[in-house]
Amino acid sequence: MIVSHEWLREFVPHSQTASEVGAQLSRHVVTLDGLESLRSDLASFVVATVVEAAKHPDSERLSVTKVDDGSGELLDVVCGAPNVTAGHKYPFARTGTVMPDGLVIARRKIRGATSNGMLCSARELGLGQEHDGIYTLDTDAAPGTPLLSVLPVGDVRLDLDVLPNRPDLLSHLGVARELSALNSVTLRMPPEIPALPAHDSVGASVFGETEATADGVSVKLEDITSCPRYIAVIIRGVTVGPSPEWLVARLKSVGVRSINNVVDATNYVLHGFGQPVHAFDLSMLAGQQIVVRESREGESLVTLDGVQRTLHTGTTVICDGERPTALAGIMGGEASQVNEHTTDVLLEVAWFDAAFVRRVRRSVQLSTDASYRFERGVDAGFTGKAAGYAASLIVAVAGGTIGGVIDVGSAPTAPKPVRLRGSRVALLLGAPIAAAEIERTLASIGCVMTADGDAAWNVQPPTWRHDLGLEADLIEEVARLIGFDALPDVVQPFRPGTVPDHALHVMSRRVRDAAVAAGLAETRPMPFVASAADESLRVRNPLAEDEPYLRGSVLTTLATRAEYNLSRMQGHVRLFEIGSAFVASLDRLPREEVRVAALVMGAVRPPHFTEPQPPSYDAWDAKALAEELVRAAFPGERVIFEPAADDVLWQIRLAGANEVLGAVQRLTIDRPVWASEAFGVELTLGHMPSADVAPHGQHAHGQGAPRAGSSWASVRYTPLPTSPAASFDLALLVPSDVSAGRVDTLLRETAGELLESLELFDEFRGPGLPDGVRSLAWRLTFRHPERTLRDKEIDGRRARLLQTLERELGVRPRTS
Amino acid sequence: MTLDEFLSACRQLAADAPAAIAVAQSPAEFADVRTQLVGRKHGRLADLMAQLTTLDAEHRRDAGRAVNDVKAAIEQLLAEREAAVAAASRTTDALDLTMPSRARWQGSLHPVTLVIDEICEIFRELGFTIALGPEAETEFYNFGALNFPPDHPAMELHDTLYLGKDTLLRTHTSPVQVRTLQQYAPPVRVLAPGNVYRRDFFDATHAPSFMQLEGLAVDEGISFADLKATLGEFARRFYGGARRVRFGPSYFPFVEPGAQMDVEVDLGDGKGTRWVEILGCGMVHPNVLEAAGLDSERYTGWAFGMGPARIAMSRHDIPDIRLLYDSDVRFLEQFAR
């Protein structure tokens, strides 16, 4: 929202600078996004003092001066003005300055004397036509001060970030009301506009009806829901032409181009008072009538922007006797627009329902200054006044007389009164506010206060403040008008909360630390993917059609990121992410699984002089990484790594559960020849509940998850050994159809309870072994808790183990 | 050549060898002296061997024995000298301690995570715990329960990605407020970090998915003064003790009064301090408390929301938000330490 500093001053006379106004608004009303001087072309000019002035030796007209521009060194400047006087201050353009006419000031010789810059006249600065001499400044400012800070020239635009709760600020009047309240300055309506003649004196005003006629023109309201009130003012005998200079300047100050006097007057009312109004060429309205009705399927209309729009039902259109001629609340039609031949005008000042305008604006995809205001809410208490201002302004700038006023429908309801308690103000703000202060602040913004008990009021908000519907809304007004910074900010004692850390957060922190310890870099890539894997979810209205799906796997995103790195010649990639994967479900919301994914490729360690070429990550490293992540996620749980097929190496399950939690896999990614293989791990940490906790307006207290228990509590101390252990190795010839896992299991089952540890320490394949057989070697360690094991006992175990292995699996010892 | 001459040459070689070997220190020098003395092709011993054929046949056996003796003696000298040099080097400079360690890869956390962690730590000191909620949400939790009027321009501040008719990707972490208040009775003091989504183009300053951090305190008697005090304390702990903060008006449908907090920061660009907006905040709207089944007369609360990515970008001079998503290992590794 752009407002002009000068235009505001017309409503609220004050002497603050634009930046002071902006700062005040930012503290109390609305954030100032920026200030723009409308004479920013003068930004580089400075104040300079002429220290000496002497006649040019070779010219009658010219003076050679010494100028102090604050730079610390006196400049020689040649000046042609008769009034240049030593000791006076003038606007000065240093060399390099661009003049308003585009000329660049350069260092140059004038009749043999060097000139370093230019002392300027009012005309050269674009400040008037006067060219009798240079512009003498009456200022105490030091040389070098920017000219704009001492010369009150040009207007300043304030760019305000008006949020949707404050549509009343979408006009100069609205912003001025706030300044008036903050500075206790009385609001003043612009003097150049007389009020509208009383309705009675100009014809039919049948407020409350839905149909009326005046001055030969009739208005009929068929759609009272979307258009509760419609005022038409008939103005006859206007002369359409250029606007007066003041009006052009006002509109220009807020960035609106002048079109003609009638249209400019309507724009002035919109930006000045926040009421969108529209002028029709009355002669183009068939049947001299206006009908406000719902659109019909297939009707069409060419709007002011020259676009042919085909309408559907559900839109409200302003029609003449035959066809639609404007989109209600959004834009007028081209056919009935005011042009240079227009003599009679029908001025529309209506109040359209906000939700309705919003819906239509979205369906026709056309946003205008008018629709922007209507859909946020226009002051329904100002419709009549706006009609008066608009009609009078048209008459003032385009001539003509008011032929009649038709006012049909009724004013929408005013905001309801709100009860306000001083005690509640004190509770919510943390500080008692004096009753008088509450009354003063709320009255200053137009609320009508009626005492209702001790330090309590019934507050009637003004018609332009539909956002003040609750006690808390009024308390906000008190707080912001006093100033949030004026309220106390002392830390008070507090009670500890009842909410435990979310279990998934606690788990994620452990997993995250394990991944970092394993040398992986955390990443947070975009969770959208290009193609639909099974069950992945499509966003209904994706912005980028190339990535419209929500990922069903976190590892997939990491694989894409690895490819990104490879395309930048980075082959050592170790990434992890903890994030959500989405799986379609029969419930309303998809199942959301919080997962950790890790991807590794390249060297397992940085090169070292003892190992110039470290090995690359392989399946065993990936398995170890998965084990570390699983341990961090599910400490103390027994986890099964189940051999799988193809690129999936292992599937991960918790012992005793069927659900697969994740997998370790070899990744197929787009990989240049120099890059090594990539391996990935993905593990589901848990699922994020998304069912409604309780119905709207209810709670389910007492059913929240308790704090997660300790995983260490189950650890039981094992007494430290007091007797020696005995170990032996078994080197075995294992046929290819027997897995190490089966041998391992059988060894454990057969070894007996004194087995302390079992460790696979060697694998050998190759010459010297029968075809299809590999050699695997285990070390077995036995210990009796109380005594030393005898050799015979050990030998007996070895013999029994070998016997069983041969019988059950056909595995024999390797003899050579 | 006579046998005497030959034997004399052998003796000469044997006599010269110790001096030549004694100066060798490095493996290269040992190789050189070995070649020079007993090299197969051009060494002095090889030269003598070549002379063997010029001797009378009956003298060759003696000559051959003499050559072999010399060779054995030289080899022994070389071996002894090499062992001595190696032993000396072991005792004097066995480890060159200036050489680098056998390092492991350094893992790292994402810069946005680092910011979230720091913020969470500070609020933990102030009695807050961590709450989470789903990213795929219902319109009710994302908008309705948060006092967004249906079909209102306020929704336009949240360009929403929809999954179904009334299901969407949450546009802020505020739904966690309602879920938490429904699940746990006050007092509630939680922080809710999480991913949120907006229908925004992916450019240098916008991303369609980004992290947000929500805070919520609800109990009896919680006031705007508590909000100011707690958030001000946070800012001082996060940015450093002397920071000034200020509060200005703002609007979020789910708080009333609504405000924003600015912090005076020095970005180190030589332009001095300036005010930077870092979070939106306010008193929890009574309609939000009621939507969660709480009595809004009895309970009050405050909430805030902030974007850790912007803070990360500002403090690390990251010029383009896409760097946070690209996952370039050269970027991520800068945050390993």
Write a brief caption for the model.
Chain A has about 800 residues and is of the alpha+beta class. With about 325 residues, chain B is α+β, with helices and mostly antiparallel strands.
Percentage of β-strand residues of chain A: 25-35%
User: So how many helices of chain A?
Assistant: 17
Would you state the CATH class of the largest domain in chain B? Alpha Beta
Radius of gyration of chain B: 41 Å
Mean pLDDT of chain A: 90
Query: Which stretches of chain A are low in confidence, meaning pLDDT under 50 for 5 or more residues running?
Result: 198-204
| Distance separating the two termini of chain A | 91 Å
The CATH architecture name of the largest domain in chain A reads 3-Layer(bba) Sandwich
Order of helices and strands of chain B: HHHHHEEHEHEEHEEEHEHHH
Number of individual domains of chain A: 6
Radius of gyration of chain A: 42 Å
Give the overall silhouette of chain B: rod-shaped
CATH topology of the largest domain in chain A: Phenylalanyl-tRNA Synthetase, Chain B, domain 3
Give the biggest sheet of chain A. Answer: 7 strands, mixed
What is the number of strand segments of chain B? 9
CATH superfamily of the largest domain in chain A: Phenylalanyl-trna Synthetase, Chain B, domain 3
Task: Name a few traits of the molecule.
heterodimer; A: 816 residues; alpha+beta; Phenylalanyl-tRNA Synthetase, Chain B, domain 1; OB fold (Dihydrolipoamide Acetyltransferase, E2P); Phenylalanyl-tRNA Synthetase, Chain B, domain 3; 6 domains; 6-stranded mixed beta sheet; B: 337 residues; BirA Bifunctional Protein, domain 2; 2 domains; 7-stranded mixed beta sheet; two-stranded antiparallel ribbon; 12 helices; 42% helix
List the helices and strands and how they pair.
The complex is a heterodimer of chains A (816) and B (337).
Chain A: E1 2-4, H1 5-11, H2 18-28, E2 31-37, E3 46-55, E4 63-68, E5 75-79, E6 89-93, E7 108-110, E8 113-115, E9 118-119, E10 156-161, H3 172-183, H4 199-202, E11 211-214, E12 217-221, E13 229-236, H5 245-253, H6 261-273, E14 278-281, E15 289-294, E16 300-302, E17 308-310, E18 316-319, E19 324-327, E20 331-332, E21 344-351, H7 354-364, H8 369-374, H9 383-398, E22 401-409, E23 418-421, H10 422-429, H11 435-444, E24 448-451, E25 456-460, H12 471-482, H13 503-517, E26 521-522, E27 528-529, E28 537-538, E29 549-550, H14 554-567, E30 573-583, E31 591-601, H15 619-633, E32 639-643, E33 648-654, E34 660-667, E35 678-687, E36 725-735, H16 740-751, E37 755-764, E38 773-783, H17 791-809, E39 812-813
Parallel strand pairs in A: 12-15, 26-30
Antiparallel strand pairs in A: 1-10, 2-10, 3-4, 3-6, 4-5, 6-9, 7-8, 11-12, 13-21, 13-22, 14-21, 15-18, 16-17, 18-19, 19-20, 23-25, 24-25, 27-29, 28-29, 30-31, 31-35, 32-33, 33-34, 34-35, 36-38, 36-39, 37-38
Helix pairs in contact in A: 1-3, 5-6, 6-9, 10-12, 11-12, 13-15, 16-17
Chain B: H1 3-22, H2 27-38, H3 44-51, H4 60-93, H5 111-125, E1 129-130, E2 136-138, H6 139-142, E3 167-169, H7 175-183, E4 188-197, E5 209-220, H8 224-239, E6 245-249, E7 255-266, E8 273-284, H9 286-291, E9 299-306, H10 308-316, H11 323-326, H12 329-332
Parallel strand pairs in B: 1-4
Antiparallel strand pairs in B: 2-3, 4-5, 5-9, 6-7, 7-8, 8-9
Helix pairs in contact in B: 1-2, 1-3, 1-4, 2-4, 5-10
